[in-house]
Amino acid sequence: MRGRGEPPPPAIQQLFDAIAAVRTRPQAGLSHEQVAVELVWLRQADDLLQLACAETVRAYTRSCPSVDEDTHPVGFLRCECRDATKTAVNLTTVAEHLDTLQASVRALESARVGFDHLALLAETLERVLPHGRWDAELEARLLRHAQYRNVTRFRRDCLHVQHSADAQGFLREQQEGVEQASLEISGGHSGAVWLRGIFPADTGAVVRTALEALAGKRGPEDERPRSSRLAHALVELCEHGLDAGLAPRRGGVRPHLQVTTTLETLLGQPGAPAGELEFSLPISAKTVQRMA
Fold this sequence. Notes:
By secondary structure, the protein is mainly alpha-helical. Helices cover 58% and strands 5% of the residues. The protein has 13 helices and 4 strands. The strands form 2 sheets. The chain has a two-stranded antiparallel ribbon with strand order 1-2. Strands 3-4 form a two-stranded antiparallel sheet. Helix 8 crosses helix 9 (167-179). The model has no long low-confidence stretch (mean pLDDT 87).
């Protein structure tokens, strides 16, 4: 629906004009502190704009003669507004519970919480309301947390409330996450190995704990980025496991790296061929020497 050429309604056109004025405002000569203040105000304006979007989603749902797969607000936001699924779900969930979350809406309007906090509050309400656990006191308690915590920390508060209301449902979601765990390993044309995976919260925490223990900087001269240090930590962790014989035997043989090389390659002599490494393309003489 975007870009079809229809002019926006007058109120929306005024919003576009205001945004254009903000984008073209002079910023030369502003101090870092002044720019930071502007950024804070812009993010608050964005929170209010998302609230306006949620209110419009509510109006859209109420005005829709029938709701099916094509007209459901989540589908409409994804297809017609090109929103990500998470964004569409957040807007729709907030829209469904705006009438109940009046205190939370006022907190957003006064910049005490952001829209992402409001979305978490709406999600929590939706999950605990069927169990009779939502009331004004619980909303006020969560708002007190939301005002002083970032979204990541506040999500933990909401999860505690959801578990208290429905421990069995909470467990079912965790079990579904375990079933969805996956890890893909593929090789590139250069011999590089690509990893892509997803882990549920509990096993993901195990992976992170093990990697973080090995991913610290080795000293002031260690300028590797965090992503590189985590990659090297994964290799080191696997090497520890192979060296200690922790992996189960296969066909009576302990898992190990199999390197095939000539003596000339091992000695680094000119004209020697590359080494061969199982599950990889040929490797350099220097790599063979390092492994040896």
